[in-house]
Amino acid sequence: xxxxxxxxxxxxxxxxxxxxxxxxxxxxxxxxxxxxxxxxxxxxxxxxxxxxxxxxxxxxxxxxxxxxxxxxxxxxxxxxxxxxxxxxxxxxxxxxxxxxxxxxxxxxxxxxxxxxxxxxxxxxxxxxxxxxxxxxxxxxxxxxxxxxxxxxxxxxxxxxxxxxxxxxxxxxxxxxxxxxxxxxxxxxxxxxxxxxxxxxxxxxxxxxxxxxxxxxxxxxxxxxxxxxxxxxxxxxxxxxxxxxxxxxxxxxxxxxxxxxxxxxxxxxxxxxxxxxxxxxxxxxxxxxxxxxxxxxxxxxxxxxxxxxxxxxxxxxxxxxxxxxxxxxxxxxxxxxxxxxxxxxxxxxxxxxxxxxxxxxxxxxxxxxxxxxxxxxxxxxxxxxxxxxxxxxxxxxxxxxxxxxxxxxxxxxxxxxxxxxxxxxxxxxxxxxxxxxxxxxxxxxxxxxxxxxxxxxxxxxxxxxxxxxxxxxxxxxxxxxxxxxxxxxxxx
Amino acid sequence: xxxxxxxxxxxxxxxxxxxxxxxxxxxxxxxxxxxxxxxxxxxxxxxxxxxxxxxxxxxxxxxxxxxxxxxxxxxxxxxxxxxxxxxxxxxxxxxxxxxxxxxxxxxxxxxxxxxxxxxxxxxxxxxxxxxxxxxxxxxxxxxxxxxxxxxxxxxxxxxxxxxxxxxxxxxxxxxxxxxxxxxxxxxxxxxxxxxxxxxxxxxxxxxxxxxxxxxxxxxxxxxxxxxxxxxxxxxxxxxxxxxxxxxxxxxxxxxxxxxxxxxx
Lengths: 491, 264
Known about the structure:
The complex is a heterodimer.
Chain A (H helix, E strand, L loop, with lengths): L22 H9 L4 H26 L8 H12 L9 H12 L8 H18 L4 H25 L2 H4 L5 H20 L4 H17 L1 E2 L1 H24 L1 H30 L3 E2 L9 H27 L4 H16 L2 H15 L8 H27 L2 H9 L4 H31 L11 H11 L8 H29 L5
Antiparallel strand pairs in A: 1-2
Helix pairs in contact in A: 4-12, 4-18, 5-6, 5-8, 5-9, 6-8, 9-10, 10-11, 12-13, 12-15, 12-17, 12-18, 13-15, 14-15, 15-17, 16-17, 17-19
Chain B lengths: L21 E12 L2 E12 L3 E5 L6 H8 L7 E6 L2 E2 L4 H10 E4 L11 H11 L5 H14 L15 H13 L5 E5 L7 H16 L3 E5 L3 H7 L2 E6 L2 E6 L1 H6 L4 H11 L2
Parallel strand pairs in B: 3-8, 3-9, 6-7, 7-8
Antiparallel strand pairs in B: 1-2, 1-4, 4-5, 9-10
Helix pairs in contact in B: 3-4, 3-5, 4-5, 5-6
């Protein structure tokens, strides 16, 4: 007999799930042994991992840190672990770390790239953690402490530098005071730190290459000219044409006038520090100079190209599409050869363009073309209603882009943009092909050419690989942090 | 006649006056989408203070018509003059008209990356150059008017559809527009939320706002509109005051349409 009506008299209390649905057993059942095939794969996986560890672990554990050559390493290992034992020879890293970090940069000037590297983080802090005063200050503080330790470490590793005329104790003092001052700025006037961020390219450039102080000042003056011409002509010509006029004026200054003016100024007021030639750059110093500059420059360029590609103006659209498709269609190595050989022909005579600078420009172009396409994807993902709402409120094109469209499009594109950046950073190792000493190929070749480290194979690649991994992994984690922070749909 | 959203409240008509001043003048306007002639010889005058409801079957061009008024769509021939400014390809005129004409969309189109308050203050700050503090006070005033001041610091994604649409209305009002366009403001809403949005729109009408409203809410049309325009196939088929329009439609096409939307 079926009953149509039912009334519950007592509510049931919740009970614990059965053992098989709880804790580790449930997890293992679901993840490791959910079917016969998966159980088999689990067993095979465990065996493979075991074999890998079995063969690699002794090699890693037998590592030797104190030796002056590879044969000495091998002797120590055989003496310790018996005939035929293998082990890593980390002594190479201990002896040659400075070449991996600085290339052939003069040893008594190591404090300069170290300080430039430290200042980079201080300059990045207000950009990466916008408006977060506490994080900015903590970041600057940590950088100050670590840099002090690093500079002391470098000074102890190369005792001759303390006696050096240019460097030594004075440089250490300057660096620490500067960093401490910036930490204070981060706390007291967080917005002012952005001024330092804007000046950083010139400061970093001067620290790395040195020479006459008028060089970077002249380059900054070019930007001042750009802004001046822009604001002068914006009223009559509109944003796009005025920007073009500013860029043309600044380019004329940079390419034709600047060297004469700065030369004259230097002969009147010769202030400067030891000049370091681009040939002496190498290792991670080179990777960071190229990678960071190209990353910073390719993002704005990519945004403009993406907007240009979606523009209604046929000329701008054609130029953007042409640029993107051409650059994406050509291998990076071709562009690097262009940088090292061909670019010189296209520039006005007697402009002596530095090789690193040329490589940076072409790597930037290369990355910008990819970034542009990633951002175009983000733009296409935005509903049309966003554009219409911005239009209907009376915002002009640039206001709508800056306030409504770009914040959303860039947010959507973060994973793609960061992938491009990570790829770009790793691609900096390709500069080995045009004779620059990148950490992976260039420096390792130099190290292996030395008689004492001849035949070393795994260690340099593991060392360089670990540093690259640390850099790329932190970029990836930062992008995930940013995505979480910008998440707005609480549905 | 049955209407699920019949307006039952008393409407205060003391401020609902139609003046002689012309707000919008559209004369022999035509628009094509490629080969398709979407708007055909539209002639229409809207006086200040008028509340016009535009209805018609889907694809009849009613949304396109009001989107032409703030140049979200471009017309190819004829003239549209809004508040004395003719809409041409001159960007200055377009921006001027857009800052005087508010628009509410079917899908709200709030900016999801900004808070409710920022949504409302954005245009006053950047277009009108209002100081931030003043813009925020204005925004809070209009948010109270649409009865959601307490949501000011939330993001659009955290609000219900009806609340979002009321924010969209407040956002438009913050620019202190002289004309408001509504493009099917209740079509994307759950039935329960339609009423709260209609109430907000009625309040706006009671204050004497010039309104053009594309909607199928016939209760709203009867209660508030002083003119109903019926469109089909890109042309104005019939226009009349609401009582006449609903009780005594002249054209067969209008009769068919009314019987379909009100008949069940």
